[in-house]
């Protein structure tokens, strides 16, 4: 298995400012330097990086700059993270327009995978129809990704329509998209991450490894929180998945490079056993 790291830690997740007024521009974004992120990720030995669609969009008119950043560091763009609110029929064409752009950029920069998170919850409450709409929307995402030679996977996430294990179980039969387990978000949503991986071994197309503690709630480098990573890694191996493990940390009070190094050391020791 190859190890990669997500660039979110260099600035945290924000939204593209144009997205305030135009759904089609509502890219995910981190305000940190992608040059710094890639250099730091490479310097501690990771082979790949995952970026937000909005950070890629910033290089759309200057692609050689990002290719130089990746090439100089010797790191490949493994995956691109995007998302949408799939349950509102009127805005779905603009949501899919943005995902189409994300997939196009991902392919142009050599990525293999498109990771899709989220899905809105209605103020009035989530309906069963919402899961049908989400499933249909994710099938359309899969079609878009495949048209660019990418593999698509869905990422359950806190505060979205799929955060609990019951909600994931509702969705999975309604779509053919792959599954990207995020260990901390699954656990924070009430699941045992290893058990979920064992439940859907044939659907796994991508993996986010992240640690956390419940009280006070915070995300942490691998091995510093509450999750049973020996069992999680065992479940991943049992599934037959033998590809990228992407370490992710949504935020960190200290140096993001330090956090990346802590996780790398822990994960290498775990994988060597």
From TrEMBL:
Keywords (alphabetical) are: Carbohydrate metabolism, Isomerase
Please give one Gene Ontology molecular function term for this protein: isomerase activity
Task: Specify the domain of life of the species encoding this protein.
Answer: Bacteria
Q: Start and end of every Xylose isomerase-like TIM barrel domain?
A: 39-268
Q: Which Pfam families match?
A: AP_endonuc_2
Keyword field contains Isomerase: yes
Q: Which InterPro entries match?
A: IolE/XylAMocC-like, Xyl_isomerase-like_sf, Xyl_isomerase-like_TIM-brl
| Signal sequence annotation | none
What SUPFAM superfamilies does the record tag this protein with? Xylose isomerase-like
Note the PANTHER family from the entry: HYDROXYPYRUVATE ISOMERASE, INOSOSE DEHYDRATASE
The protein here is known as Sugar phosphate isomerase/epimerase
Q: From what organism does this protein derive?
A: Arthrobacter nitrophenolicus
């Amino acid at each position: 298995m190859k190890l990669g790291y997500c660039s979110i830690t260099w600035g945290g997740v924000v939204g593209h400012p144009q997205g305030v007024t135009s759904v089609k521009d509502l890219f995910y974004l981190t305000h940190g330097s992608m040059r710094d992120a890639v250099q730091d990720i490479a310097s501690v030995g990771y082979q790949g990086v995952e970026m937000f669609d909005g950070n890629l969009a910033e290089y759309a008119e200057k692609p050689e700059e990002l290719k130089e950043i990746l090439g100089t560091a010797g790191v490949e763009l493994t995956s691109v993270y995007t998302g949408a609110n799939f349950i509102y029929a009127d805005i779905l064409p603009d949501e899919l327009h943005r995902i189409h752009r994300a997939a196009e950029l991902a392919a142009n920069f050599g990525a293999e995978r498109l990771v899709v998170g989220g899905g809105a919850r209605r103020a009035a409450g989530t309906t069963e129809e919402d899961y049908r709409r989400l499933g249909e929307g994710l099938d359309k995402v899969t079609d878009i990704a495949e048209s660019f030679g990418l593999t698509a996977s869905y990422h359950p996430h806190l505060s979205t329509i799929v955060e609990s294990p019951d909600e994931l179980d509702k969705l999975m039969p309604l779509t053919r998209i792959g599954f990207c387990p995020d260990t901390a978000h699954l656990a924070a949503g009430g699941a045992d991450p290893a058990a979920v991986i064992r439940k859907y071994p044939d659907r796994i197309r991508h993996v986010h490894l992240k640690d956390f503690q419940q009280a006070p709630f915070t995300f942490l480098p691998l091995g510093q929180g509450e999750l049973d990573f020996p069992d999680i890694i065992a479940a991943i191996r049992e599934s037959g998945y033998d590809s990228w493990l992407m370490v992710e940390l949504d935020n960190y009070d200290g140096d993001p490079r330090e956090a990346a190094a802590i996780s790398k050391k822990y994960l290498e020791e775990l994988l060597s056993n």
